[in-house]
Automatic annotation (TrEMBL):
GO terms for molecular function: RNA binding; RNA methyltransferase activity. One of its GO terms (cellular component) is nucleolus. Pfam families: Methyltr_RsmB-F, NSUN5_fdxn-like, NSUN5_N. Residues 137-300 form the SAM-dependent MTase RsmB/NOP-type domain. This is SAM-dependent MTase RsmB/NOP-type domain-containing protein.
Length: 300
């Protein structure tokens, strides 16, 4: 369903800011940021809609640019920033449709028939009947995203977690991951955000890729491990669990707001072997006596 006018305007600008940031980072190979993080920025509204709009605009960007570049009207109009134009063109040509609320929206909306005709010409030229066939093969593949859960073995065993999940119809299809013993897999779209085991910290919503570093390290319970960029704490609590709550995980983060989330995650996970440090890890002084017990790293 299309968003109401004023909310749609806000979402367009939030998505445009993120698209601009992604393209700039891509061009300069610097200051990268995840799309999810940009979409979920605390100041953003309608985060889910913003995230979807960023992803779809980037997916169709090649086609959008072709339409943009072959349209004289838009080339002559310098009022709308390119990244906002890309987002608006996505909504107009492929998305929910565009309504003329907002200055930039009105500019693009006024070119609606020209833009649609340009897209139609492009489809004829490429001999495709469906706009999705204009996308490169890689963008067309939409494999279902499975929901991965890490069992917090400080609180519950993998077998017990499996039994509890299998006993409920909404999670009965749970399986073990083929690679990581403490990771379980649910079909895409299964919503477990409010599951009692998640709320209690027995299960942690963590992607498979994010579970690989701790598993690859295979820390021994006698080790001291430095997690240099730790917040919000998924890998920290994974390390702590793999060390059976023993040894020491020094969890360092430079951002005070994110450090609060890290502390909450550590507490919820019951990870008593974690020492949270508010600090830029690049400035850690290895000779500081306060690190005597907790340094150096990875000593087995
Ligand atoms: C992608 S997040 C880390 C995710 C985390 N490892 C996890 O698994 O949940 C990156 C974090 O690195 C922190 N960070 C970036 N540069 C840092 C630095 N020089 N020192 C300490 N923390 C830093 C940021 O504040 C941010 O919280």
């Amino acid at each position: 369903m299309p968003l109401p006018g004023s909310l749609a305007q806000k979402v367009h600008r939030q998505a445009a800011a993120a698209v601009g940031r992604v393209l700039a980072a891509d061009a300069s190979k610097q200051n990268g940021a995840s799309i999810k993080r940009l979409a979920l920025a605390p100041s953003n509204v309608a985060k889910r809609a913003t995230f979807a709009l960023i992803c779809e605009t980037l997916k169709y960007l090649g086609v959008i640019k072709e339409v943009w570049n072959s349209s004289d009207i838009l080339k002559r109009n310098k009022k709308v920033k390119p990244e906002l134009a890309y987002v608006l063109l996505y909504d107009l040509l492929f998305g929910e449709g565009l309504s003329p609320h907002g200055d930039a929206e009105r500019v693009i909306f006024a070119c609606k028939s020209t833009l649609k005709a340009t897209l139609a010409r492009l489809m004829v030229k490429r001999q495709v009947a469906d706009v999705r066939d204009l996308l490169p093969e890689t963008a067309k593949q939409t494999a279902p995203t499975l929901r991965h859960l890490r069992v917090n073995t400080l609180k519950i065993s993998v077998d017990e977690a499996l039994t509890q999940l299998r006993s409920h119809p909404s999670t009965c299809e749970v399986k073990r991951d083929d690679l990581l013993p403490e990771v379980l897999v649910l079909p895409s779209g299964t919503d477990v955000h409010n599951h009692p085991m998640v709320k209690k910290g027995s299960l942690i919503l963590q992607g498979k890729a994010s579970c690989l570093p701790a598993r690859s390290l295979q820390p021994d319970p006698s080790w001291t491990v430095l997690d240099a960029c730790a917040a919000p704490g998924n890998k920290t609590t994974h390390l702590a669990a793999m060390m059976n709550g023993k040894g020491c995980v020094m969890a360092c983060d430079a951002d005070a707001r994110r450090l609060k989330r890290l502390k909450e995650a550590v507490e919820l996970a019951g990870a008593k072997n974690v020492r949270v440090i508010h600090q830029d890890f690049l400035k850690i002084d290895r000779t500081d006596p306060s690190f005597k017990k907790g340094f150096p790293v990875l000593s087995s």
